[in-house]
Design goal:
Elements lengths: L2 E5 L2 E3 L5 E8 L8 E6 L6 E6 L5 E3 L7 E6 L4 E6 L8 E7 L10 E2 L3 E5 L1
Parallel strand pairs: 2-11
Antiparallel strand pairs: 1-3, 3-8, 4-5, 4-9, 5-6, 7-8, 9-10, 9-11
């Protein structure tokens, strides 16, 4: 049974930083793509960053240079370090765990953690 549990969201001021965590269980992220996805009110889900099995990362242009994805495989945890937060970063942030390489297909989802920037 795969579970993804996000944490670390909250309310922050513009320009501040925040780190999100996603703990996975029943899942091996070393053999599959994992990603952070966000959804702002009234908007479609947007891919923030993904990391594939070869270590390659893909960032949305809107977060390049500000957000950093990292993994601790020993702790089965995915992190998203968010710096220089902007109002437009306000969204529900989800951890997505794909069922293989190339970040394709239907992933497993966490419940999300809300980030509000004011």
């Amino acid at each position: 049974h795969v579970q993804l549990v996000e944490s670390g969201g909250g309310s922050v001021q513009a320009g501040e930083s925040r780190r999100l965590s996603c703990v996975t269980s029943g899942y091996t992220s070393t053999t599959s793509c994992v990603a952070w996805v966000r959804q702002a009110p009234g908007k479609q889900r947007e891919g923030v960053v993904s990391i594939d099995t070869d270590g390659s990362t893909r960032y949305a242009d809107s977060v390049k240079g500000r957000f950093t994805l990292s993994k601790d495989n020993a702790k089965n945890t995915l992190y998203l370090q968010m710096n220089s937060l902007r109002l437009e970063d306000t969204a529900m942030y989800y951890c997505a765990a794909y069922r293989g390489r190339f970040c394709a297909g239907s992933p497993y989802w966490g419940q999300g953690t809300q980030v509000t920037v004011s």
